[in-house]
Specification:
It is a single chain. Helix content is about 35%, strand content about 15%. It is α/β, with parallel strands linked by helices. It has 2 domains: about 250 residues, Rossmann fold (3-Layer(aba) Sandwich), CATH 3.40.50; about 90 residues, no CATH class. The strands form 2 sheets. An 8-stranded mixed sheet has the order 2-3-1-4-5-6-7-8, with helices on both faces. It has a two-stranded antiparallel sheet with strand order 9-10. β7 and β8 form a beta hairpin. It starts with about 25 loop residues before the first strand and ends with a helix.
């Protein structure tokens, strides 16, 4: 070993890494506006909107774009990815244009353009909606886009009655969608647009672990159809809709969305908060381990990965966003042949926060408090 006369610095870069928080309050809005500024909102192109008020002035007066942006702005001022679509000659052609496709030249049109937003604009839309045009075919296509983006779709249940809404809901079984019924009174699509804005506001102010339900909605003056509601859990239209996993609208100290459920056929993801927690953890942990890819597999690397993940879990738990979580390394899942082939398996389990959907109160009548009546009289002198 050569003699060192002076100072030698050895850089040590092992240990846990900080994981950046995921941006979840980003809306993906697909809308129609025939008279919008074509420069500001070119057709079938994801457009980044950071100033909602300014964007409304360029959204035109026709179609749903301006109204949707205004409904979102009533709730907050989020980042929005807007895709403007040209209407077709009839309802079927408009539906086809909204659902979109990938052209022979590789351009994505309609809602498919949301899939290209991250590569073009650097942000990924997570809160998705097509206010006013989300019929069954559009909703089904939007769920597929949501699954690819690890996002969540908010859609209207297409129905005129409670019974029709419940029947309509039977056509869905995915965890990435919430159905809403009925509509607010101002315009068809208002409920979904306001759900997008409120979801972004809750994400920013409280977090993705809080559901959409029971938060006052701004800018609303009425319901298109009144919904019978009983806070004490009696038989009502609201409870029937909630039993069918449909989020409804109520008026109680303002107007509110009332319902926590997705359309998931898997009970583990029945709640909106459980689905979004799963999505956030997937992307947060994956993005936070980019530094580990292609590093030599050693015990130090495995420990650093575990420490990184578990540090993030502790942070999320301290913030009240999860109940708990833990990452582990199982030797049985990592045989020498797999490690030699460049594959490491890390297990982690987590418990999301469930909403306090039901608070049960036991009320009993009794005469036992009369036993202190004499003492109470004595105190009165």
């Amino acid at each position: 070993m050569p003699i060192i006369h002076g100072i030698k610095v050895t850089e040590i870069n092992t240990g846990a890494r900080a994981i950046a928080a995921l941006s979840t309050a980003i809306i993906g809005l697909v809308a129609i506006a025939t008279d919008a500024d074509a420069t500001a909102f070119p057709l079938d192109t994801p457009v980044l909107v950071t100033d909602v008020s300014a964007a409304i002035g360029k959204a035109g007066a026709q179609g749903t774009l301006a109204k949707a942006l205004d409904a979102i702005a009533d709730q907050c001022s989020p980042i929005i990815i807007v895709v403007r679509v040209a209407p077709g000659v009839d309802a079927a052609a408009t539906r086809t244009a909204i659902i979109g496709t990938t052209t022979a030249e590789g351009q994505k049109t309609g809602m498919q353009a949301l899939l290209a937003a991250e590569s073009q604009l650097g942000v990924r839309p997570r809160i998705l909606g097509v206010p006013g045009y989300d019929d069954e075919d559009v909703a089904a296509a939007l769920v597929t886009v949501a699954q690819k983006l690890r996002g969540f779709a908010y859609c209207a249940a297409q129905a005129d009655t409670v019974a029709e809404a419940i029947t309509y809901a039977d056509g869905f079984g995915q965890r990435e969608i919430m159905l809403i019924w009925p509509e607010f009174s101002d315009w068809t699509g208002s409920a979904v647009a306001r759900a997008l804005g409120l979801r972004a506001r809750i994400d920013s102010e409280t977090g993705w672990h809080k559901t959409l339900s029971n938060v006052p909605v701004n800018g609303v003056t009425g319901l298109a159809r009144p919904v019978q509601f009983d806070l004490l859990g009696g038989a009502s239209e609201a409870s029937l809709l909630n039993d069918a996993n449909i989020t409804t609208l109520i008026r109680s100290d303002g107007f509110r969305f009332w319902g926590n459920r997705t359309m998931s056929s898997e009970p583990l993801f029945a709640f909106e908060s459980a689905t979004r927690t799963a999505q956030v953890l997937q992307d947060t942990i994956a993005n936070g381990l980019l530094w580990a890819i292609d590093k030599p597999i050693t015990a130090v690397l495995v420990k650093d990965i575990l420490d990184t993940i578990n540090a993030e879990f502790r942070k999320l738990q301290s913030q009240g966003r999860i109940i708990g979580a833990k990452a582990t390394y199982d030797p049985a899942a990592n045989p020498p042949s797999s490690l030699a082939a460049g594959t490491i398996v890390i297990d982690y389990e987590y418990t999301p926060c469930a909403p306090a959907e039901a608070i049960l109160l036991n009320q009993r009548i009794t005469d036992r408090f009369y036993a202190s009546l004499s003492d109470q009289l004595a105190q009165l002198g």
